[in-house]
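Hi team, as promised in this morning's meeting, here are the two structures we talked about. I've kept the exact order from the run log so nobody has to guess. The first one is mostly here for context; it's the second one we should focus on when we meet again. Sequence first, then the predicted structure tokens.
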Amino acid sequence: MKFKFYFLVPVIALFNCKAQTIPLYVGTYTNGDSEGIYKLDFNTETGDLTNLQLSTSTENPSFITYSHNKKYLYSVGESNETISAFKIQKSGTLELLNTVTTHGGAPCHVSLNTDGTKVVVSNYMGGNIGIYKILEDGSISEASQVFDHNEADEKPAHAHSAKFYKDDLFVSDLGRNRFYQYKLVDNAYQLESKSIINIEGNPGPRHFEISKDGKFIYIINEYGGSITSIERTDTGFKQIDTDSTLDENYEGKNSCADIHLSKDERFLYASNRGENTIAVFERDNNNGTITKIQNISVEGNWPRNFTLDPTGKFLLVANRWSHNISVFSIDSSSGKLKFMHDAKIPEPVCLLF
């Protein structure tokens, strides 16, 4: 049985908020009631989510991202080892441009380079990453480069996320407990380091954030329930801190998922699946260290991806198992969160403004 969605919004509010409404696209898992990528209208003044629509039917679009001009959207197909390019229509629906293979199982992350000419896809089960060119019509080429992290007689690689920063490409590999660095040389990427720091134990580096100046990197560890803070130095990189994402009284199982810096980079946010919270950290913009100031319930179950809206006033969480998106207001001075309301949607896993 498919979900039915009802959003009750006063008629006067609809007229008043029209000019401050922006789209929110939602990637989902389609194992149950979901049919693909959805779109909601988000009010940047009230935080309301309205007008749910199915933008395109596609299988397990678990991670999505925009082109730089927001005319196109790119989505991995986690169960069929593909990445697809869509053109965004005025109605909010998505027109498929093309689909290509990711050359690895369970693609779980996609991101663009600085000038929007390339995308990189991380393949969790494949343990590799693929780099693709974005063509003039918004479609994507076949992979121009594929880097495999698997090695003989070693535990399987699980590339979980990758991001470009200027001429660098960083990759977080949960299976190998490594943080790879690639360098752009003569318009192609080359391996610079199998791990920019020595990651001890088995914390499972998953997603990460890079400060705007490129000086600090924050890695969230899925198994370790922690954040590893890294500083770029004149000679390379060094670890400066490790901080728990969990409340000191929590004793249950946990798997960390996502991490984001606030727009002004004064605060860092991280999601806990199990404790089902968002951990809030205050950040020292000078030395890059972080201090936890809050753990707040996500008002749902199994928070996967979350995002901050473009105004920086709201944080939205995709709760996979409770089938809802929770909306929090952000205190601009303290960075702390306050739950406002939620909207029902089947198996949300990725939120895109």
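And here is the second protein, the one for discussion:
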Amino acid sequence: MATLASDSDQFSVPVIDFHSFLNGTDDQKKSTAAQIKDTFQNVGFVYLINHGVPGKKVEECFEWSKKFFNLPSETKMLAPHPPGASHHRGYSGIGRERVSQNVFDRDAIEELRRVPDNKESFESGNVEDGIQPNIWLPEDKLPGFRGFMEDFFVECAALIRHVFGAIALGFSLPPTFFQPFHSRELYQLRLLHYPPISEHALLSGEKGRLDAHSDFGTLTLLFQDDVGGLEVERPKDAGKFMPVRPIEGAVLINIADCLMRWSNDSLKSTVHRVVAPPIMPEDTSEHGEGDKMTSARYSIVCFAAANPDVVVDALPGTWGEQKPKKYEPITAGEYILKRMEATY
């Protein structure tokens, strides 16, 4: 049964119990899959509870994230993100990235980068990924970090397989339909830290957290702390954003651009952003006269993408005489590289 999570009666992200898909009867699986498809068609986001990733492992991942980002800068830079966008692994410092929404002109990108994202990140992925091998700290700098992150990636990849099974079933396709297209599991597991930032810097545009954008793979998992700050564009109300409050024990999942294209726009890739959370006096400190600091924010994201050589063309059942194909075929690798080059 879907319930609603929102800070406003005007907008809601459905909350769906995924247990019935993972462990239910065939009819229960179909019912849950239909709910998920409906949500992805209309909102683009869904909260799943009872999703199969142990809560203790999620909590431990947040603990490892804080340990990593608390390291000295020179230690974190022992695992640096390489230049460019072809190798998306390792540590990126504050201001390294500037997310943009479908901006590909070089001059326009450089203009946007004058106000970079005020965040830092660490990314890893599948240990068998030969295209983007992982970049780790020396083991003695943070013992146990690498082993845990490799294990957590496996948990996220399993959940992604199940979600794709539900999407396929929702389209009356075999639950394994998407597996061959994602067989290499070339995903990005990203730890994110948004440091405290002054209210004045945010409101004046001097600094930003994460500007409005949509993701560009196939789907995204998000585990967030209890700080808040995520906002999602309201369906059929472009440019208007509503906060999406964190839900303990839930994972937030959204459709990304490549899957929206793949579904011939049957599924919705929704624009979202990270801004300052509500500033509560008891949780803030003064920063200069009359200026307050937001709380630090941590999140864990896993970006799924299809194998690079997969040709993205309209899915069966999403096109026909009454609804022709909207896009030319393109490989998943070509599409994602184009988007990454506009980010880094």
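Starting points for discussion:
The longest helix spans residues 145-170.
The chain has one domain: 54-227+254-261+280-341.
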